Amino acid sequence: MDDILKIKKLTFGHTIDLLFEDLNLTLKYNEWYTLVGPNKVGKTTLVKIICGLIESQGDIEFNFLTLNNKNLKEIRTRLSVLFSNIDKQIIEDNVYDEIIFELKNMNLSSLEIENRIKKIAEIIDIEPIIYKDIAELNDYEKYLVVLTSALIIKPKLLIIDQTFDNLSKSERNKLYDIISKYREIHKLTILNITSNLEDSLLGDNIVVLESGKIIANDKIMNIFNNKILNEKNSKLPFVVELSEYLKLYELVDKKTEIVNLRLLSLYPLILLIFQRFLAI
Q: What pLDDT score was predicted for residue 1?
């Protein structure tokens, strides 16, 4: 399987107080990753470095292109990022212009732009609001517009930086369903940063960022089995304790170590207990 993103020996920060030191991370093509770690560990900073918004030392390769000034414009046509404050991401005054903003920057023809809108409308129900002003939209509709703008460029990687955390469960589920549907059709790697436990279990893999390094990057079942973190002597207790609680309430099969997501959704009170172990 091809690597969509490779980060090698990434170093960032002041010499005496480095945020990242020799950080390595690899994301595979068409995989869904959840990035977790303690507060102020640098999750958003890492996203900004991947996007080329912050310079750092080390090697970053995205979709076979080295991250540098020469390739940055091309990389941004293959990468979409949703940050936590979506209002700062909306540039235009109306929905239509906002959705096609990046397409125009890519110098696509009017015919191709209209074709992209038609195709994305088959996945996202954007037609009822496409000719509205942004000021007319409710909060959920704004998220819909931002997500549409992110997917319409046909990215290879979608990064979600705690973007949906303040939405209701039903609204988050709708947006994640859209992303999943898009991923089935177009293939897409996802890096999701979330403080919501249920949302962190949606993907294929969990990436743990701690003390300036990636200390684990593995399938969810392996992370909850503690093998990786025990080998790394992780200071993060949440995965260890969360794993035991999942097994205690039979939310993980004790033989296969696979998380039973359907059963997990039936235990909202248990989820509240788990939340304190997930220090994101």
A: 57
